[in-house]
Specification:
alpha+beta, Heat Shock Protein 90, 382 residues, 5-stranded mixed sheet
Length: 382
């Protein structure tokens, strides 16, 4: 998995979850808010109707003895009715509308009369219902508690998503650190290998040439220098193609004393392999061949590479030998050859997989599968 996918995957999940849960919470909160508003309106209506009821009772008592006070109370009730009409406009309620129509006489009558007051008091909706008010207040408190619960849940979710993102980023950082350290060790291993090739091959032959000059020794020095240069930059890959470069690796194994080396290539398929995969594939097989040369003590080796885009976009291959082998999964890979860790790292960089089968005394088999894309921005590192 690439570094970019490791970063984008948790962030994308976090964004999707945030939108999903946030949208659901917003709709739920909005629903509860509307419910709270309705409860508040219902409470206000009941309070106003209760005030009108007791105002009518007061007018009924005051009319015989104190008509002036009764008219003042009547005017106060007119204000209550106007407020009730405003509530009717903010919330379309058929029951409230019928109540408002029944109270129109308070607005149209300037001076109250016993007949009008008595007729209004006979309406059931003016009966005080304090128990219903208490129920509505309980519903309002429940709605407020649910709203706070949703808000707290969103905060907890945000903290959880932040923690998960931080964990993923920390894991990515640790992987990048391990990859950096591995690259440093691979570079040091490559420098050590080049120095060993130069010292054991070219330098020793130059020293021997200094003592005993001959044309054959000069040819051997030139051959070794070309071999070292080829390992640094495979010119044959650029000049003759992937098949010829892999044939060069097979010949190098034969020159190292491995007599039976088989190279099986799907040459027609490899000609259709995207160019960005050729050098990475060459480096992977080169490292596996180097492992056979320096560690396997083998007399036979087999290299197989196949790619058929008609059957599926998968590049497959394996490199096997009949050498001394090793115990897989017990840390022997890195101790025997740092290059094998580099092979696994290179293959994983493009989403591929490396399978290793080996037992002491029974040789080794390295099989790799690499998904091939027609356009790759990040190929395996060299």
């Amino acid at each position: 998995m690439s570094a970019r996918s490791l970063i984008l995957a948790p962030l994308l999940v976090m964004v999707l979850l945030t939108f999903l849960v946030g949208g659901t919470a917003y709709q739920q909160t909005l629903s509860w808010k509307n419910g709270v508003d309705r409860v508040a309106n219902n409470i206000s209506q009941l309070v106003i109707l209760n005030n009108i009821h007791w105002g009518l009772r007061k007018v009924q008592r005051e009319l015989p003895k104190h008509p002036q006070q009764a008219e003042e109370t009547w005017q106060e009730m007119r204000s209550e009715v106007i407020l009730l009409l405003k509530l009717q406009q903010s919330e379309k309620n058929e029951e409230l509308e019928s109540v408002s129509l029944a109270l129109q006489s308070i607005l149209t009558t300037t001076h109250p009369t016993p007949t009008i007051v008595k007729a209004l008091l006979q309406n059931d909706f003016l009966s005080p219902n304090l128990e219903q008010v208490d129920q509505l207040k309980t519903l309002q408190k429940d709605a407020e508690r649910v709203t706070r619960l949703i808000t707290l849940s969103m905060i907890i979710l945000g903290l959880v998503l932040t923690g998960l993102t931080a964990y993923d980023l920390d894991r990515l950082f640790q992987q990048l650190v391990r990859s950096r350290d591995l690259n440093i060790r691979l570079q040091e291993e490559e420098r050590r290998r080049i120095a060993q090739d130069l010292h054991d091959g070219v330098v020793q032959e130059l020293v021997d040439l200094k003592r005993n000059y001959s044309a054959d020794k000069i040819d051997a020095v030139i051959h070794n220098l070309r071999r070292v240069c080829h390992n640094l930059k495979p010119q044959v890959l650029e000049d003759l193609g992937l098949a010829a470069a892999l044939e060069f690796l097979a010949d190098d194994l034969r020159h190292a004393g491995i007599a039976d080396v088989q190279l099986i290539l799907d040459e027609d398929g490899l000609t259709r392999l995207p160019k960005q995969y050729e050098l990475p594939l060459f480096r992977v097989i080169q490292e596996l061949c180097s492992n056979i040369k320096h560690h396997a003590r083998a007399s036979q080796a087999k290299i197989t590479v196949a790619y058929n885009p008609m059957e599926g976009p998968m590049l497959s291959g394996y490199v096997s030998d009949n050498g001394q082998g090793f115990e897989v999964g017990k840390g022997n890979i890195s101790s025997n050859s740092m290059g094998l860790a580099g092979v696994r790292e290179r293959i994983q960089q493009v989403g591929g997989q490396l399978h290793i089968q080996s037992r002491p005394g029974q040789g080794s088999r390295f099989q790799f599968l690499i998904p091939v894309k027609q356009s790759v921005k990040h190929a395996l590192s060299i």
